[in-house]
Amino acid sequence: MLVSERLVLRRFRPGDAEAFAAYRSDPEVARYQAWDTPLSLEQAAAAVARHAAADPDRVGWFPYAIALDGELIGDIGVNLHENRGQADIGFSLATPFQGRGYATEAVERVVRHLLLDRGLHRVSAECDPRNTASARLLDRVGFRREGLRRENTWLRGEWVDDLLFGLLAPDYRRGRAGDAELSR
To answer: InterPro entries from the xrefs (predicted)?
Structure first.
């Protein structure tokens, strides 16, 4: 479990299935994501059970539930690479909670955990260039835009580009040291 100022990033629980189905079925949330919509309650319950059984220390994806006052409002996945020195992240947030800094807070907390607590060397992310809110979020957290893979992903009946982001531990530590200097 990871805790930030307003959020708890925790394992999924069976009671999360209804909220999970609701935001994963929202066309605005799913617009730039690879999952199919709508997501039935049965499908959500099965996904939540799989997510709850995942291990954050194992190679592969581990999804954190993003909770606000105990309520599931989104998720952030961490894909730990086989070398255990790198990870990819991806995130989604229910529409009513967007634009309030919750996603930035959750991503920042996970990145801090991966780079400082776990000692990973690099965290990567990618998004559709049309998803300007996610691109701005990654910029705010300190990711660098590293490239563009043109028409790389087949999504909702069309080939779309992938905007690539990366954040190295040394750069993150330097940025945090600069933040500390500014706050003195």
So the answer is: Acyl_CoA_acyltransferase, GNAT_dom, N-acetyltransferase
The size of the chain, in residues, is: 184
The tally of CA atoms less than 13 A away on the side-chain side of residue 59 is: 5
Question: If residue 107 lies in a helix (H) or strand (E), which one and from where to where?
Answer: helix 102-112
Q: Which residue has the tokens 């563009």?
A: 148
Instruction: Fill in the DSSP letter of residue 36.
Output: -
pTM of the predicted protein model: 0.92
Pair of tokens at residue 161: 């580009």
Mind listing the pLDDT tens digit for each residue in 91-111?
999 999 999 999 999 999 999
The alpha carbon torsion through 65, 66, 69, 71 (nearest 10 deg) reads -60
- Check if the beta carbon of residue 64 is closer than 8 Å to that of residue 80: no
Q: Give the neighbor-by-neighbor strand order of the sheet with 158-168.
A: 2-3, 8-10, 60-68, 71-80, 86-93, 122-127, 158-168, 144-155
Give the pLDDT confidence score for residue 179 in this predicted structure.
56
> What's the half-sphere exposure (Cβ side, CA atoms, 13 Å) at 38?
8
Which helix (H) or strand (E) element contains residue 8?
strand 8-10
CA distances from 128 to 50, 103, 132, 149, 154 (A): 26, 17, 8, 10, 11
